[in-house]
């Protein structure tokens, strides 16, 4: 692939009216070129990753982004990476890679706030197609390409098999989902009542969509994800996994489903914490979007179709 740009110029914008919000805009150091974000409709997949580091290094994140930066430029033009720092004691540093990256930081160090971090990532997403996952996995280029080429997801949700180093596969883990951003927000995202302690936000998210009638599929094993080798002593987190606090909350929410139906079981709490947009990085596009001259003129046909097939 074409090499990433040698130098990236960073401009620190004036702070907006909201206190504590700082926006950095990365732009190409070549005046006549435009960035991919000048064509936001070209972004067809938002890759959402929540991270928390309380050890020596954040290399687990930087090595993943550096690997993704070697993927084909046609693919990278159509993906944005949304990195949510879940209040790490020391702010993370992103590598100098030619990717579309939105980096936000939650300003409070609240343990196990992955539900809030994932909600924030989906709110910031530019695409309706969102991939929610974590640092334990990486996605081969063909898997990301498959996700981009899929038709609009509507109410369908997809999970991925995990490919092992020996070529065998494990069943999908309930912390990775490909789904529509509109569907995510319609059902109020992850339940932040679980935040602060470990467990159950992923399984309740999965089962909540299932009970609402949103079908959940598995992608073919040909389009799997891979478990990464992670240094859990120096470049990870040391949070304790203890289900005891969240277990009665999960039980109560199931009882609310039984008693109140589809409107029970979710606190509807979202983004109840301060956060900062740290960086908005724009990559140099490999090529400009395809021109569609006659699309606007066909609006009466689309409008008529909408009237005939609307519920």
What would you note in describing this structure?
This protein is of the alpha/beta class and 311 residues long. It is 24% helix and 20% strand. It has helices at residues 59-68, 73-76, 114-124, 141-149, 181-186, 201-211, 247-260, 299-309; strands spanning 8-12, 24-28, 45-51, 79-85, 100-106, 129-133, 137-138, 157-159, 162-163, 169-170, 177-180, 216-218, 225-227, 275-281. An eight-stranded mixed beta sheet has the order 1-2-14-5-4-3-6-11, sandwiched between helices. A four-stranded mixed beta sheet has the order 7-13-9-10, with no helix packed on it. It starts with 7 loop residues before the first strand and ends with a helix.
In short:
With 311 residues, the chain is an alpha/beta fold. Helix content is 24%, strand content 20%.
């Amino acid at each position: 692939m074409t090499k990433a740009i040698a130098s990236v110029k960073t401009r620190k914008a004036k702070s907006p009216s909201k206190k504590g919000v700082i926006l950095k805009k990365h732009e190409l150091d070549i005046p006549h070129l435009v960035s991919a974000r000048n064509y936001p409709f070209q972004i067809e997949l938002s890759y959402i990753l929540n991270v928390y580091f309380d050890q020596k290094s954040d290399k687990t994140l930087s090595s993943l982004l550096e690997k993704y930066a070697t993927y084909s430029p046609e693919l990278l033009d159509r993906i944005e990476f949304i990195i949510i720092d879940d209040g790490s004691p020391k702010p993370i540093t992103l590598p100098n890679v030619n990717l579309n990256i939105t980096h936000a930081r939650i300003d409070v160090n609240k343990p196990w706030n992955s539900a809030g971090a994932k909600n924030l990532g989906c709110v910031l997403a530019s695409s309706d197609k969102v991939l929610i996952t974590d640092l334990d996995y990486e996605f081969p280029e063909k898997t990301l390409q498959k996700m981009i080429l899929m038709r609009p997801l509507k109410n369908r949700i997809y999970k991925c098999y995990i490919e092992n180093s020996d070529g065998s596969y494990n069943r999908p883990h309930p912390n990775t989902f490909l789904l529509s951003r509109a569907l995510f927000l319609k059902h109020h995202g992850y339940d932040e009542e679980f935040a602060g302690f470990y467990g159950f936000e992923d399984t309740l998210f999965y089962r909540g969509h299932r009970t609402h009638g949103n079908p959940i599929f598995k992608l073919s094993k040909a389009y799997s994800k891979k478990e990464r080798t992670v240094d859990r002593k120096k470049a990870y987190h040391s949070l304790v996994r203890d289900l005891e606090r969240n277990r009665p909350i999960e039980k109560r929410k199931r009882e609310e489903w039984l008693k109140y139906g589809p409107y029970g079981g979710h606190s509807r709490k979202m983004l109840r914490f301060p956060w900062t947009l740290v960086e908005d990085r724009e990559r140099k596009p490999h090529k400009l979007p395809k021109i569609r001259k006659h699309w606007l003129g066909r609006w009466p046909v689309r409008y008529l179709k909408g009237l005939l097939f609307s519920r």
